[in-house]
Amino acid sequence: MEVACTEIGASPGVSVTVEEATAADVEAVRLAVCWDGKCDDHNVQLFAGSDTVDQGCDGTDPNSACSATAVPNGTKVGFAEVPGQPTGTITIGATVRRAGKERVLPKIDTQAEPTFPNGPQCGPKVPRRRWWSGPRAYADSECGYEPQKTLSTTVLARRVTRR
User: Fold this and answer.
1) Helix (H), strand (E) at residue 21
2) How far, in Å, are 14, 26, 159 from residue 34 at the CA level?
3) What's the half-sphere exposure (Cβ side, CA atoms, 13 Å) at 23?
4) Residues 6 or more apart from 67 whose CB is under 8 A from it?
5) Where are the beta strands (DSSP E) in 21-161?
6) pLDDT tens per residue across span 77-112
7) Based on CB atoms within 10 Å of each CB, which residue in 10, 11, 42, 53 is the most buried?
8) Comparing C-alpha atoms, which of 1, 4, 40, 33 is closest to residue 16?
9) Contact 21, 137 (CB under 8 A)
10) pLDDT tens-digit profile of 17-60?
């Protein structure tokens, strides 16, 4: 069966989520994304996060109209576009300004995974990684959660995971 693939794109970079438990106090996040001995700093503009809530469909036919709505969830989200970011091992460091104080978090090694905006049948586009901060934080790729290691500071705790 032939599959139609669109030209939809994706930018290489790191998605950021600040969990609800600390989001109200987090004012800014700056990431250092490193590979091959060089690092690039990226200020991450944070926005209110949301969850998508299914509102159902008007029928069961494949052509039926379906809808969903975004509901605020108390998190903050952002994205650092990182031109040239490779697939494979990268190192991410973060400076978080929380309640007026900056805290430099330990750097972590993680894997940037390719994204598949049209699904895996259409081939990868660019590498991405997700970085979370908060008491139950995760950095993950696009494919699932698997605990890998834990790093913590007095300000934020974060767990690095790989999907």
Assistant:
1) helix 20-23
2) 12, 23, 19
3) 21
4) 55, 56, 57
5) 26-35, 38-44, 47-57, 66-81, 88-98, 101-114, 127-133, 137-140, 147-152, 157-161
6) 999 999 888 888 999 999 999 988 999 988 889 888
7) 42
8) 33
9) no
10) 898 988 999 999 999 999 999 999 999 999 999 999 999 999 88
Q: How far is CA 117 from CA 6, 120, 125, 142, in A?
A: 9, 8, 7, 10
Could you tell me which residues are beta bridge partners of residue 140? 130
| 85 secondary structure, DSSP code | P
CA distances, 46 to each of 30, 80, 86, 89, 110 (Å): 10, 10, 24, 25, 22
Find out whether 139 and 108 touch, Cβ atoms under 8 Å. Answer: yes
77 Cα distance to chain centroid: 8
Phi/psi at 21 (5° precision): -60, -25
Side chain identity at residue 80, one-letter code: A
CA atoms within 13 A on the CB side of 46: 24
Answering whether pTM is above 0.85, one says no
Task: Select from 43, 155, 44, 153 the least CA-distant residue to 100.
Answer: 155
